């Protein structure tokens, strides 16, 4: 842009207006006028269905969203934003228990009781059901549906015995003693509540008193028949264990999603941005792209499929490639920052609302110290006192961000718990990040043209150290101080003449190894279970700390900061 020139930038998606007008005056780019205003939308809130309350995030006008009913309810709600009001198009939340399996322990008196599974149908809330033990076992177990969960109700089993049956089971004699039931009373109608049948437990047929006796129903049971039933019981136990593991995994992923949603809402409230990207509620991928059995609406499985090994055949490679493509799509929709305005592709555009915030961050992390890199790399002759931000560009590279999200998930799976806390000067600034894996914002100095290239094509390990050397090994070097990254920044050409660039990157630091002396420690990091390195020259020489990453996917360049140096 030449001196005195002006340019018009269109309003981003989710807003309307004539655009943002920029002008070049005195060597600086200024915002002269902004007519962009948010389109009509519905603020976050809660919809009710019966006694269920279901929260939702901000919605654009005419945006549709599918909400899953909360725990204890079944069904879903389809809502739409219409002229600032949220309406329920169809669906409802029903309280009750869906058909499924329940687990019951075999006779608890045994030293090693088995776990049996029994199926039940749909149950209303509070409904009591009696489930008969599977083949090869005798007895029954009582269950009750409460708040969407089916649980044992053994203490209530006696209350459901009909009064006639209870009167037949126990006959009081003249002397007040209890007599056993008379067989003739049950010749026509065998009692379903036989006292010999164990209650709230399942017992093998061979272990009952009547088994093997002459004339008894169990007398025909042979050892061969019992052995044939054992594999069935083992299979049922395995199915139950798999179902319980799946339920636990789904609950864990749902907890992480809700945590991200809460973080996103806090960010939107803090910076005044309205979420215009895809809704955080999981949505199904297109059938044409993902016809390989990916999760349906509301499912969160599939994150670990990337690491599954398969035979090196052409067919399996093609299937794996398509599967990874579909998994990336699902993950992309779940983990996008709430303030992103696009759904796919690569987009770089001005974000004027960030200028003041980034300017303050750079001021707070600027130190009046310098190293030899300022002369060796940037070729500077003077040391600047600070900087002035001219523009901030937001990078929405969906493919790169999905790889970054996959890397973060890999860190969580590798660690049994949160990483050791590691604070930097940019902690708790710009946006709320994931403290469990030490996710932080860090600076990387470069020139405007290279910044655009890195934002589109990512950092490349094969080019690491080509400009600034590699004090701690070949890796991606970033800093917590803007003044340190400025030592590597260079002025651009053309429209960027006189302007420098700096990348503000999301970084997943994980477990951090702190060292103070130079040396190639890449192998030490890998062997010692670390994920990144802090080169602490602040402690050793009183200068700066630099963070080094040996994995390209651990860093995502989210903002390009265009600025000028201030010398007086």
| Global shape | flat
- Strand order across the largest sheet: 25-26-33-29-27
Number of domains: 4
User: In angstroms, what is the radius of gyration?
Assistant: 33 Å
Bin the strand percentage. 25-35%
- The number of helices is 10
What CATH architecture of the largest domain do you see?
Alpha-Beta Complex
Q: Tell me about the largest β-sheet.
A: 5 strands, antiparallel
CATH fold-level name of the largest domain: Phosphoenolpyruvate Carboxykinase, domain 3
Mean pLDDT: 75
Measured between the Cα atoms of the first and last residue, the distance is 25 Å
**Low-confidence runs (pLDDT<50, min 5 residues)?**
158-181, 183-195, 207-221, 270-317, 326-332
Can you identify the CATH class of the largest domain? Alpha Beta
Helix content: 10-25%
> How many β strands by DSSP?
33
Class by alpha and beta content: alpha+beta
Structure notes:
This protein is of the alpha+beta class. Helices cover 24% and strands 29% of the residues. β20 (140-146) and β21 form a beta hairpin. α3 (314-335) crosses α6. It is flat and about 95 Å long. Residues 158-181, 183-195, 207-221, 270-317 and 326-332 have low confidence and may be disordered.
Question: Can you summarize this structure?
Answer:
This protein is 24% helix and 29% strand. It is of the alpha+beta class and 568 residues long. α3 packs across α6 (398-414).
Task: Give the key terms.
5-stranded antiparallel β-sheet, 568 residues, 4-stranded mixed β-sheet, 29% strand, 4 domains, alpha+beta
Topology diagram in text:
Elements: E1 6-9, E2 15-16, E3 20-25, E4 28-34, E5 37-38, E6 41-42, E7 45-49, E8 52-56, E9 59-60, E10 64-68, E11 73-74, E12 76-82, E13 85-91, E14 94-97, E15 100-105, E16 115-120, E17 123-124, E18 128-132, E19 137-138, E20 140-146, E21 149-152, H1 163-169, E22 171-172, E23 178-179, E24 203-204, H2 223-271, H3 314-335, E25 346-350, H4 355-364, H5 373-376, E26 386-397, H6 398-414, E27 439-446, H7 448-457, E28 476-479, H8 482-486, E29 500-508, E30 512-515, H9 522-527, E31 532-536, H10 537-541, E32 545-549, E33 555-566
Helix pairs in contact: 3-6
